[in-house]
Amino acid sequence: MAKGLTAGELRVEDEDTLVQKLKEAKEELFNLRFQAATGQLESHGRLRAVRREIARIYTVMRERELGIITVEKETSDG
């Protein structure tokens, strides 16, 4: 999972990529929570960052669902 995903970076991704990133972020969050519960977590700030990434992904997906933003397909000039 890339660290520090911004909403702008997520808005240019296609739907399948967003779903994959969401899956990866949820898996990472699960692992971080497991580490925290067992006392093995070194970076507690990463928990917050991953939760925020998940929220950003859900926000972009919802914006598309409501038609607030759309994905612009690249057109070839050839």
TrEMBL record:
Record-level GO cellular component terms: ribosome
Query: What Pfam families has UniProt attached to this entry?
Result: Ribosomal_L29
Q: Recite the UniProt keywords alphabetically.
A: Ribonucleoprotein, Ribosomal protein
Q: Which domain of life is it from?
A: Bacteria
Report if keyword Ribonucleoprotein is assigned: yes
Answer whether the UniProt record assigns the keyword Ribosomal protein to this protein.
yes
| InterPro entries documented for this protein | Ribosomal_protein_uL29 (IPR050063), Ribosomal_uL29 (IPR001854), Ribosomal_uL29_CS (IPR018254), Ribosomal_uL29_sf (IPR036049)
> Which family, according to UniProt?
Belongs to the universal ribosomal protein uL29 family.
NCBIfam families (alphabetical): L29
* Name of the protein: Large ribosomal subunit protein uL29
